[in-house]
Design goal:
The strands form three sheets. A 14-stranded antiparallel barrel has the order 1-2-3-4-5-6-7-8-9-10-11-12-13-14. Strands 17, 18, 21, 22, 23 and 24 form a six-stranded antiparallel sheet that branches. A four-stranded antiparallel sheet has the order 15-16-20-19, with no helix packed on it. The protein is an all-beta fold and about 400 residues long. It is built from one helix and 24 strands. The chain is elongated. The chain has two domains: about 280 residues, Porin (Beta Barrel), CATH 2.40.160; about 90 residues, Immunoglobulins (Immunoglobulin-like), CATH 2.60.40.10.
């Protein structure tokens, strides 16, 4: 299997919408991919039919999780079918008006079949701190990963017998301990529907140090998001130049279409070289589990980012939203059955807010980032990152 297949498919499988607050969602992902072997490496071009199930959602204040089981069936005669199970948990929480802290932890175990059987399992953690000032976002993160891999190496022997030479093939397992650690810094700028991003990263591993510089751009519109990225890697085996691009389109229902392709960078933890590939998939939401949330929020990109807040309160006669994005002036919300809704312009950064329900200050218990204000009252805190400025992203 080419090393680009798994990153390409993971983009398609794991880039769906988050579930609504306090809910979890089950999704089916179906797609196809085409991989190319590393330049000068061992392998063949292969085509795969891919599929899997994904389960994910949010919890508490700023917590989120995901789990998936995916696999690829080789459609070419010499390709290697594969399967993977992976899951992760994370937390992102504002700590002040312009600062947020977070951490994400992910683990994966996967296996690749013949002609070169390979198994690997690893866990990786990434703490981060983010700063947002108007349309500029700066992020610093660390990285640490541990794992183990096993590859089956076959040796061929020829033995003379009374019936003539006989060929024997003996397989032996070669195990390796995996580890890598590093750090990254990234700066992004919001320029309307366009968001350029610049990042530098450095890693150390058993095979030696890695360094990478990335330059990317996102173009956001109401139907979806396009991104492109170029990177230069300095690896123990020499310099690698990689280019990749992707497209995410929302259909308006419970389906999301994703496509990606290009030349993907090496992986310091798995010691995999750069390789190329193409992938496309459709993600279909099968079910949502949990009660209908009292408060939901999403950020839409339609020329300028806008925030949509929906508060479920069937007995209220008047609800107003107030926060930093309203200059602390109460803005009336419109009623639609049991749900009250308001749409407001918003910029990336940290925003505090709450509601007046029939003249009384109110913040739902499951609102994001509950903190006390200077008068001892409770207020919600919404952190809008560059990546949140996507269509229909509901935490």
């Amino acid at each position: 299997m080419g090393t680009a297949v798994l990153p390409a498919l993971l983009l398609c499988v794991l880039s769906g919408e988050p579930a609504s607050a306090q809910q979890t969602a089950l999704s089916l992902d179906l797609g196809a991919s085409y991989s190319l072997p590393p330049a000068g490496g061992i392998g063949i071009a292969s085509t795969y039919a891919n599929g899997g199930l994904r389960f994910g959602g949010s919890f508490g204040a700023g917590g989120f999780f995901s789990a998936a089981g995916i696999g690829g069936l080789a459609l070419s005669e010499e390709g290697a079918s594969w399967a993977s199970a992976l899951g992760g948990v994370g937390w992102l929480q504002p700590v002040s008006r312009n600062v947020s802290l977070g951490i994400s932890i992910m683990g994966e175990a996967f296996t690749v079949g013949e002609p070169v059987p390979y198994r690997a399992a690893y866990v990786q953690a990434e703490p981060e701190v983010g700063f947002a000032f108007g349309g500029t976002a700066v992020r610093f993160s660390g990285y640490g990963g541990l794992g183990n891999s096993e590859v089956t190496v076959f040796e061929t022997f020829v033995r003379d017998t009374r019936f003539g030479p006989r060929v024997f093939q003996v397989g032996s397992i070669v195990a390796s301990n995996l580890w890598a650690w590093g750090a990254a810094a990234e700066i992004a700028q919001e320029l309307g529907v366009v968001a350029p991003r610049l990042a530098v990263e450095a890693y150390d591993s058993p095979q030696g140090p890695y360094a990478v510089g990335r330059l990317g751009i996102e173009v956001r519109s109401e139907p979806g998001t396009f991104y492109a990225e170029g990177a230069v890697w300095d690896t123990p085996d020499g310099q690698e130049i990689v280019l990749r691009a992707g497209l995410r389109v929302l259909t308006g229902g419970r389906a999301t279409v994703l496509a990606s392709g290009g030349r993907y960078g090496p992986d310091p933890l798995l010691d995999s070289p750069a390789a190329g590939g193409l992938g496309a998939s459709v993600s279909l939401e099968l079910a949502r589990v949990g009660p209908a949330p009292e408060l939901t929020w999403r950020v839409l990109e339609n020329g300028q980012p806008t925030l949509v807040l929906e508060l479920r309160s069937p007995d209220a006669s008047r609800i107003e939203c107030v926060g930093e994005f309203t200059r602390w002036d109460p803005v009336p919300m419109l009623r639609d059955g049991e749900v009250w809704r308001v749409t407001l312009p918003i910029t990336p950064g940290v925003h505090h807010f709450g509601f007046f329900v029939d003249g009384e200050w109110y913040v739902p218990s499951q609102a994001p980032g509950l903190t006390k204000d200077e008068w001892g009252g409770v207020q919600a805190t919404l952190f809008v990152s560059e990546q949140d400025s996507l269509p229909d992203v509901t935490p």
